[in-house]
């Protein structure tokens, strides 16, 4: 047996907070968003190219024909806009309620 002092016990490397060089950043998030947008645009172009046949549409006083892809895209955009309006109104309502209760 040796009379040498025992070395200090330190926390394992896993317990020490270190900066991860591969951590997420705004730039990496933007890159993922650009790639996803590009994939969605490619799918949109394929959708439009495959649905070029004309369809007859009637809505209230409007009557006409348009390519099927255009009609479906217009319907989707209107649906998204309505959802955004309802969501915005709900957010305003909740913010107003929080402001009232915090006074």
Automatic annotation (TrEMBL):
Residues 50-101 form the Lipopolysaccharide assembly protein A domain. Pfam families: LapA_dom (PF06305). Residues 1-25 are annotated as: Disordered. Residues 13-23 have a biased composition (Basic and acidic residues). Keywords: Cell membrane, Membrane, Transmembrane, Transmembrane helix. The chain crosses the membrane at residues 29-50, 70-92. GO terms for cellular component: plasma membrane. This is DUF1049 domain-containing protein. It comes from Nocardioides agri.
């Amino acid at each position: 047996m040796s009379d040498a002092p025992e070395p200090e016990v330190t926390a394992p490397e896993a317990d020490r907070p270190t900066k991860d060089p591969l951590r997420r950043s705004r730039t990496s998030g933007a890159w993922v968003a650009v790639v996803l947008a590009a994939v969605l645009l490619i799918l949109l172009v394929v959708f439009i190219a495959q649905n070029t046949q004309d369809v007859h549409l009637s809505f209230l006083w409007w009557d006409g024909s348009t390519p099927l892809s255009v009609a479906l895209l217009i319907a989707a955009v209107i649906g998204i806009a309505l959802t955004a309006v309802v969501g915005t109104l709900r957010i305003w309502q909740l913010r107003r309620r929080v402001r009232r209760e915090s006074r």
